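Researcher: Next entry: P-type Zn(2+) transporter (Flavobacterium sediminilitoris).
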Amino acid sequence: MISNNINSTDCCSNETKVNHNHKEESDHNHDHSNGNESTFKMFLPAIVSFVLLIIGICFDNYFPQSWFSGWTRILWYSIAYLPVGFPVLKEALISIKKGDVFSEFFLMSIATLGAFAIEEYPEGVAVMLFYTVGEVFQSLAITRAKTNIKSLLDQRPDEVTILDENNKTTTVKSETVKIGQIIQLKPGEKVGLDGVLISELASFNTAALTGESKPDTKKKEDIVLAGMINLNTVSQIKVTTAYSDSKLSKILEMVQDASSRKAPTELFIRKFAKIYTPIVVVLAILICLLPILFVQDYIFSQWLYRALVFLVISCPCALVISIPLGYFGGIGAASKNGILVKGSNFLDILATIQNVVMDKTGTMTEGVFKVQEVVLKSESNKNEILQIVNTLENHSTHPVATAIHEFVGEIDTTIQLENVEEIAGHGLKATINNKEILVGNFKLMDKFSISYDIDPASIVYTTIAIAYGNEFIGYITIADSIKEDASSTINKLETLGIKSTMLSGDKSSVVQFVAKTLNIKNAFGDLLPEDKVNKVKEIIAKNETVAFVGDGVNDAPVVALSNVGIAMGGLGSDATIETADIVIQDDKPSKIPMAIAIGKQTKKIVWQNIILAFGVKAIVLVLGAGGLATMWEAVFADVGVALLAILNAVRIQRMKF
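Model: Predicted structure:
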């Protein structure tokens, strides 16, 4: 690629980093310097070369000039060649110095200089000209893909308005704002840093983060993230996170790292190009020299021409640029819809998923519990028991704990709990007044041999059992609601031929009720973390691929076991972004089949490009070796196919899923 191009990836590397601050890492990295160059400036060398080439061809064929011959003609075509040829020759030398001899620059340099050597000057110039034009278009396509994702994600304003103690406003750079400062937002302004809303109520457009255009209304103390747009009232936000640690920063870091996690197809093409190119050079030499042993009227220039055509056709640019660009486009399309994919390898896995195994709470249900009833054997100490339960649940992050806290109220700080312990898949236990208190499911009661006189299966709601002093004293029922798009999610998965399974630690009656409502045929409740692992192992034992959708942290063993882990990340959960392979930012289950559809479409486009490139090149290579293809066909087989493959790769970002 020519040195005055936009910052891009090189043709024989599949690195397409999104972060403009990171140095491109590739086999023979070539710098295209200033990313702010105008399109005209990028094409200027090609325009100059094209004008001189056309004039030369006219002098040769249509308006013969007596002076246009000998050294004058050679000089004219040499000048036409230099604007597009010199940068490529320079890059070829740089690559050779780095130990990478068989680069695409080397192939093009040999082919075009060879054309000059056998006095095919116009064709030599034309090959380099079209190659350069193709490379500029590739550069533009890659830059556009990067820009689309960056503009999609990096929505933070450079400046924000802060409010001081005297209610005076000052405009400052976003990166200088400290934690605890107050930001004031006018309608239409973007949030610059993560924080909590201190105004009573405000509506925000969260499309940049979630892909969801529906406004999100926030209440006082709700989390507000950088990139959201304030819609209708002046709002105030207290900053809780530094600029560099904001949710958007983590998302950007994740997306830029995604290009380092390669799909098997990408890794194969990269290895293939390293072996393929030197083989092609050897074959070209054999095409040129070997016929001398078998052909009676051997003419060196004719066979050299065929060898040069063979070299031009063989350049692997169409594959090694369009394939990573296709995966990068898939990651971009997912990001646009609020789905963060941590690597192109996960897009490949999504395309082959046969089973989606999901948690219930927070995945298919809202995860927002509300206390329905409190049933205690003795009403006299009801308030005291609820205060103890509330204090104990304060040690848990489970949605049940939040529901109890909202029902009971503030924590009673006079209550002193000892030996607090969370028992995974069961609940909590602690000691108070030298008596043991247990709060959890009925499996917790069974574990500690606490007898109870009710049938848990008869209660439809989620039930929290309570034991105090080795005696069952009652229970609290809590209800959750099914997400509005949960049913359509299961239907879409079924349409894609994917089986759905629900695994939950919640009681079986609740799990079966939700599964029946959503038409999920396989559902299991009362499961411990190890039980979930065993259920997933049973599916994997059938040689079927599994995507697990859930918390991403609590279900870490199942996520690790499954082929791909999908987290309902929520806008506030940093841990899930770090744990899962794929993060659904707005917690909508409908994004699960959407992510799978994007994976399938990405893989389809990648294979279309592979078949196109190999098919056309194979045909023209045979024709070239047999002397039936000229440099013009060679240009199409290289540059033309590369451009077609790139156009095919970038169209995924325009698709609707």
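Model: Note for the record: The two ends are 34 Å apart (CA to CA).
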